[in-house]
Structure formats: structure tokens, C-alpha cells
Amino acid sequence: MNINRSRRQSRRRFIIPLNSMSDVAFLLLIFIMLVSLINYRKEVKVEYPEAETAKKTSAEKNLEIWIDVQGGLYLNGDASDLRAIEDSVIATYQKAPETRIHLIADKNTRFERVDAVLQMLQILQYRVVSFVAK
User: Fold this and answer.
1) What is the DSSP string of 42-102?
2) Model confidence over 21-39: pLDDT tens digits?
3) Domain spans in the chain, listed from the N-terminal domain onward
4) Mean pLDDT, to the nearest integer, of 117-131?
5) Terminal Cα-to-Cα distance of the chain (whole angstroms)
6) Which residues pair with 64 in a beta bridge?
7) Nearest in space to 63 (alpha carbons), one of 104, 30, 118, 19
8) 62-131 CATH
9) How confident is the model at residue 62 (pLDDT cuts 50, 70, 90)?
10) Is-contact 123 90, C-beta < 8 A?
11) CB 101 within 8 A of CB 61
12) Whole-model pTM?
């Protein structure tokens, strides 16, 4: 009789508790949302001018200069001035000469502000400059 009793105990079904599955799914969702914020790119709110033709470039190794409607300058999304941008362009060129500069200006920005940046790039003889448009 003891033999039959031990067989019954070994035949028990294993049951996975499903009560906490929603908690696990919720925690997984939070983890994915937090990880996706790591690659967050700072952007300045500008209204893009429209272009007739377009050429796509890789966005990974770019230096972005933003100019908003009021003429404020931003370097990769952080507020900056023309001198700091010039220093950053020089440092970037010394490290990687193939780095492309993207000039992103609001379509209502006064051209004098854009021209000041272009003159600075011309003095530095920087040749890989793109104007970003919609």
C-alpha cells in the first residue's frame, strides 16, 4: 500500500500561478519605456522650410545647429552662442573631419541669423554643411 501512495504523490500536476502575470507585464512595459528614453534626442521647436528635392543623410555622426524664430542658437538641442558653436565645430573637425553639420532653422527666422552661422562656417572653411528642410 505504501507503494501506491508514493505513486499518487508523484503524479501531481504542476500549476503555474497566473495571478501575477499582469504585474510582470506591467513591469516589463515600464522597463521598455524607460530604456527607450535613453536614446532621447533634444530638439528645438522650429517650423521647417519645404524643399523641392531631398537627400537623406545618416543622423548618427552629425553636428546639429538649430536657429529658432527669435534667432536663438542651439547646438545639438542645447542653448549656445556663436563662439561656443565655433569652438565645437573646430573640436569636432579635429576629431572627425567627415562629420556633417546640419543647419536647422525655422522658416520664419531672419536670414541675418542664418547668415552669421554660414559666415562662421565659411571662415572655418567647413565644407560638409546641410540645410535641413521638410
Assistant:
1) ------PPP-SS-----STTEEEEEE-TT--EEETTEEE-HHHHHHHHHHHHHH-TTPEEE
2) 888 889 999 988 888 777 6
3) 62-131
4) 82
5) 83
6) 102
7) 104
8) 3.30.420.270
9) confident
10) no
11) no
12) 0.57
